[in-house]
Specification:
- The complex is a heterodimer of chains A (about 130) and B (about 170).
- Chain A has about 130 residues and is of the alpha/beta class.
- Chain A has a 5-stranded parallel β-sheet with strand order 2-1-3-4-5, with helices on both faces.
- In chain A, strand 1, helix 1 and strand 2 form a beta-alpha-beta unit.
- In chain A, helix 2 packs parallel to helix 3.
- By secondary structure, chain B is of the alpha+beta class.
- Chain B has 3 helices and 8 strands.
- In chain B, strands 1, 2, 3, 4, 5, 6 and 7 form a 7-stranded antiparallel β-sheet that branches.
- The chains are: A alpha/beta (about 130), B alpha+beta (about 170).
- At the A-B interface, helix 1, helix 4, strand 5 and helix 5 of A face helix 3 and strand 8 of B.
């Protein structure tokens, strides 16, 4: 498999964004799991413990990205790397996400080749 | 906020909108102020923002043909286009928020709400809304910003940026 068929969890309340990212990553050989918000993301992560990377939006209904980060660490869902993918760019939010365990921050709209390169790097396929 | 700051906010909004939609093939944009009375297109995305110094609502609308032409996966499905309109509204306000932060104003953004109906019109504004139409050939977007601000707040560029470079990938 091109990128060893690793699982990537994409958490975003926008179907368009999820499909766009899924198309990009599937084309590179990743298996993409989709979640519509942080609560759904926690559930999907519990069902897919072998997830190699989480790409997570910040502002979502029910459970946002920062809350999801906290719950991932608190629920001991493993040391899965989480990269935030959001329209937000405030240093304070970036610092907050990093403090809660995020390993990256990407501002939307993203450049597809750059996003794929970042995913490969974080997932160990770079 | 003084009149020149409101004018700057309007320009920042229009620049943010043009920069966002141009990423999705909406080029050579003409912008013009329009009457807010409507009626608006059948589907409108609305997104609230709030902060100590500035708060309000952004509304973005476009006919289905414009949304289909800019949709990143070229979908023509109505649910997909509604979702895309909400995401565009989110992208525009996210970019505007970054500009505001670098001018000393911090706001928090909500999640987009999609409203659909016939003969849509806006009423009971909190402030004096900006309503603009962005046109590229036969395609067009309409955008409305209704906001209120503290009287003494000024939009002034900060000496040091408070936002990350949106063009870069930041891995820690």
């Amino acid at each position: 498999m091109g990128t060893s068929g690793k699982k990537i969890l994409v958490v975003d309340d926008s179907k368009t964004m999820r499909l766009l990212i899924t198309e990009l990553l599937s084309g590179a050989g990743y298996v993409v799991i989709e979640a519509v918000d942080g609560a759904d993301g926690i559930e999907k992560l519990g069902a897919h413990r072998d997830t190699a990377l989480v790409l997570c939006d910040l502002n979502m209904p029910r459970c946002g990205g920062l809350d999801m980060l906290t719950r991932i660490r608190a629920n001991e869902l493993g040391p899965v790397p989480v990269v935030m993918l959001t329209t937000e760019s405030h240093f304070e939010l970036v610092r907050e996400a990093r403090a809660r365990g995020a390993v990256g921050w990407i501002v939307k709209p993203f450049n597809p080749p750059s996003l794929l390169a970042a995913v490969k790097q974080v997932a160990g396929d770079g | 906020m003084r009149q020149d700051d409101w004018s700057l906010l309007r320009d920042m909004l229009l620049d943010s909108t043009v920069a966002t939609v141009s990423r999705f093939g909406f080029q050579d944009v003409n912008r013009r102020r329009v009457d807010d009375a409507g009626p608006w297109p059948r589907t409108v995305a609305m997104l609230g923002f709030a902060g100590h110094d500035l708060s309000g609502t952004l509304a973005l609308a476009a006919p289905a043909g414009t949304l289909a032409a800019t949709h990143p996966l070229h979908s023509e499905d109505s649910d997909d286009l509604d979702d895309w309109l909400g995401e565009l509204c989110n992208l525009v306000l996210g970019r505007l928020k970054a500009d505001l932060i670098d001018h000393g104003i911090v706001v928090e953004i909500g999640v987009p709400m999609i409203v659909s109906g016939g003969e849509l019109r806006f009423r009971n504004f909190r402030g004096a809304p900006f309503v603009y139409e962005l046109r590229s050939g036969e395609r067009w977007f309409r955008i409305l910003l209704d906001a209120t601000a503290n009287t003494n707040v000024r939009l002034a560029p900060r000496d040091v940026r408070a936002t990350v470079d949106r063009r870069e990938i930041h891995l820690f």
